[in-house]
Write a structure and sequence with these properties.
Tyrosyl-Transfer RNA Synthetase, 14 helices, 5 strands, globular, binds tryptophanyl-5'AMP
Length: 340
């Protein structure tokens, strides 16, 4: 760990500055970053290099990066404690990425379901970056020798790839250079689903705005989206077993439980057998109580560009110190060092 750190383990996670942040990003990832800062040296990264694997309008990318940094801080990540930074400002990520590209196997990348989903039928025409995206993600983690990676469930397969890369790298070079990173996936909100279809993940790319609640939504917008959320004609079921076939009900109860930090079973006990309208009325309050202070703080922070730039600059130079040491070690181990 870095000399200044009192911790023996390190957390790293990243969020893409694309299309705004939704409740799934918050409940599945960002909210869980906050308590980890007390236990681990923590780095939270705005992954702009991942964002450009699909086309980004340069001027919009800048404001989206500010939005993610603001969301981190507004959600309770303390920039004095944690390192908040911008991926592209620490070139060691991409330097390591090339080396890891030479370790990872094409067969491993061919199995990545997120690439298959994102590329769809357009496979021949998507960027090479979209294909090698998980290798860059492994570099984000390994350039800090991170031991723990908090993510939503959709990133689990990418984490497994990072672990495969560690095993092969350490084995090929006969040195335990990298620790095996462990995913931290919260079981209560690992996969927040679309409000329009409980079998689909809440996502930035869904064409329906009613499928997701954004961290920038007004209270009225939140209320409208929850009122319109898809539900069943019958009341909420009496048993948890029946919930398995009612994905929309399960999702609304999950959102309630995660926003309120209340055990899922207690929430279920409160609403089982009741009409969806009763749950929705309470859920509107619960979501607004959670999101509106974050939205207000994000809006304040995004107008203070000077402050955000300072946070990101300080974060990048703290991150760079750790990354440079690890890259040096990797260069030595792989024979890429300058001593000939
Ligand atoms: P991204 O930007 O798509 O999402 C950021 C985080 O939000 C989680 N998430 C969700 N969790 C629950 N329910 C949902 N519906 C939902 N949608 C998104 C994601 O799992 C993620 O934790 N590849 C990553 C970014 C990344 C990264 C890294 C993460 C780049 N480098 C290194 C960890 C470590 C991504 O695209 O996340």
């Amino acid at each position: 760990m870095s000399k200044e750190s009192k911790f023996s383990e390190r957390v790293l996670s990243g969020v893409q500055p694309t299309g705004g942040l939704h409740l799934g990003n918050y409940l599945g990832a960002i909210k869980n970053f906050v308590p980890l800062q007390q236990k681990f040296e923590s780095l939270f990264c705005v992954v702009d290099l991942h964002a450009i694997t699909v086309w980004q309008e340069p001027s919009e990318l800048v404001s989206k990066k500010c939005e993610v940094a603001a969301a981190f801080i507004a959600s309770g990540i303390d920039p004095k404690k944690s390192i908040i930074f911008n991926q592209s400002q620490v070139p060691e990520h991409t330097q390591l990425s090339w080396i890891l590209n030479c370790v990872a196997r094409i067969g491993w990348l061919n199995r990545m379901t997120q690439f298959k989903d994102k590329a769809g039928k357009n496979r021949e025409n998507v960027s090479v970056g979209l294909y090698t995206y998980p290798v860059l993600m492994a570099s984000d983690i390994l350039i800090y020798k991170a031991t723990h990676v908090p993510v939503g469930e959709d990133q689990k397969q990418h984490l497994e790839l990072a672990r495969d890369i560690v095993l092969k790298f350490n084995n090929d070079f006969k040195r335990e250079v990298f620790p095996l990173p462990k995913p931290i996936i919260m079981d209560n909100a690992a996969r927040i689903m679309s409000l329009r279809d409980g079998t689909k993940k809440m996502s930035k790319s869904d064409i329906s705005e009613y499928s997701r609640i954004m961290l920038t939504d007004t209270d009225d917008e939140i209320a409208k989206k929850i009122k319109k959320a898809k539900t069943d004609a019958m009341p909420l079921p009496g048993t948890k077993k029946e919930l398995e076939n009612m994905p929309e009900a399960l999702n609304l109860l999950t959102i309630y439980s995660a926003c309120q930090d209340e055990e899922f079973d207690l929430v279920f006990d409160k609403y089982h057998g009741k009409n969806f309208s009763e749950l929705k009325i309470d859920l509107i309050d619960v979501v607004i109580n959670k999101i509106s202070p974050i939205r207000e703080e994000m809006s304040r922070l995004t107008t203070d560009k000077k402050y955000l730039r300072e946070i990101l600059d300080v974060g990048s130079s703290r991150a760079k110190k750790i990354a440079a040491d690890v890259l040096k070690e990797v260069y030595e181990v792989t024979g890429l060092n300058s001593n000939i």
